[in-house]
Design goal:
about 375 residues; about 25% strand; alpha+beta; 18 strands; eight-stranded antiparallel β-sheet
Length: about 375
């Protein structure tokens, strides 16, 4: 590969537990992604200019001691325009502060914003002050555990959430009152008083033993009540100003009728990036612009798009070689050994409405499961 200019303004450095979606978004925005994540799967390698596998695991996260050497080796002589962080840093905002001393400007939220947004006590207190509905929380076992869930501070993805059982929790976990209803997420670009919502999605869980709220999928909603969107937009603007949020973030709500309760803030590009990104107005560009204090443009949508994680219901000793459909990503390479409940890939579908997109999505997922269970023809 020929040597690149040391001032590589068209290159982005990406670090995350899984960097594939960010790499795809970077490509759509015209950037060359350098990706460091825990998987270095075939999709990420195909999208990236270069990719390295970080030490660590889904349970323990990214190994902090090895992160800077890995990123230095990945960048080589390049000087990327920015460092884009995905999931994996919510529990360790100190790692973000360290990265900021060694690498190009970090786009999005800094360590203080991440720490504030993911501090359960601070989020609850701020919501109470701003009049934003938010569930009660407790650090001690509640007397009525059936009405509470147990969560990990700084957790993401839903796998860390479980129903409370009345027993004391390990350090770093807390109780949050259970709110019945439908899960709705708002993807937004935080930029102080110019904070704007990209769109709303409905999300669902893919229940598993010990993980009743494991992330299943999401569908981008084509329609949303204007008054409700404006009210939620006001909440997110206030929180962005209070915490110093910047760039792409998401907020999770529970909808009960016309009533919305904020569950948590994710101060980073989230799981719905794929279904909201658009080549005409790339969200990575909006992320970079908002982080730098520049005006930004958001995409507009005329249809719905959905995605879901396809998990294997049983163990697979050696994953077969498949001819993967174009509506899949994060594909397992052939020969991989999978345990029951492991992710196989991400599945996508579009539709004229959210219902149509989800119907096609579930048909696609069933078709794909048949393919891997039957193996190649």
């Amino acid at each position: 590969m020929p040597a690149r200019s040391p001032n590589s303004a068209d290159t982005l450095l990406i670090a995350a537990i899984s960097g594939r979606a960010l790499a795809a978004a970077a490509r759509r925005a015209g950037y060359l992604p350098l990706v460091a994540d825990l998987f270095r799967d075939t999709d990420t390698v195909a999208l990236a200019e270069r990719a390295v596998k970080l030490p660590g695991g889904l349970h323990d996260g990214i190994a902090g001691a090895a992160l800077i050497p890995a990123l230095r080796g990945l960048t080589g002589n390049d000087r990327p325009a920015a460092l884009v962080l995905g999931s994996g840093f919510e529990r360790h905002p100190d790692m973000v502060e360290t990265l900021g001393r060694h690498f190009p400007p970090i786009t999005g939220c800094g360590s203080r914003a991440i720490g504030a947004a993911k501090d359960p006590d601070r989020l609850a207190a701020t919501c109470a002050e701003l009049g934003i509905p938010h569930p009660a929380l407790s650090w001690t076992a509640p007397p009525d555990p059936r009405n509470w869930v147990a969560k990990a501070g700084g957790g993401a993805g839903g796998a860390h959430v479980g129903r409370a059982d009345g027993k004391p929790l390990t350090a770093g976990r807390y109780f949050q009152r259970f709110i019945a209803g439908e899960s709705v997420s708002a993807l937004f670009v935080a930029a102080g008083h110019d904070t704007r919502i990209v769109g709303f999605s409905r999300q669902w869980a893919s229940r598993a033993p010990g993980a009743p709220y494991r992330y299943g999928g999401a569908v981008r909603l084509r329609r949303f009540r204007r008054g409700t969107a404006q009210r939620i937009g006001g909440w997110l603007t206030a929180l962005s100003c209070r915490f110093g949020l910047l760039g792409l973030c998401s907020a999770d709500f529970i909808r009960s009728g016309d009533y919305y309760t904020l569950i948590e803030i994710n101060p980073r590009p989230g799981a719905t990036l794929d279904i909201f990104d658009d080549a005409g107005a790339p969200l990575i560009r909006a992320h970079l612009d908002a982080s730098a204090g520049r005006p930004f443009t958001l995409p507009r949508f005329s249809d719905a798009m959905a995605s879901m994680v396809a998990y294997t219901p049983g163990p697979i000793a050696s994953f077969p070689a498949l001819s993967w459909p174009e509506w899949t990503a994060d594909r397992q390479p052939p020969g991989t050994r999978l345990a029951a409940g492991d992710p196989v890939c991400t599945v996508f579908a579009r539709g004229a409405s959210a219902a149509a997109a989800v119907k096609t999505l579930r048909a696609n997922a069933l078709d794909l499961q048949t393919r891997w269970e039957e193996g190649p023809p």
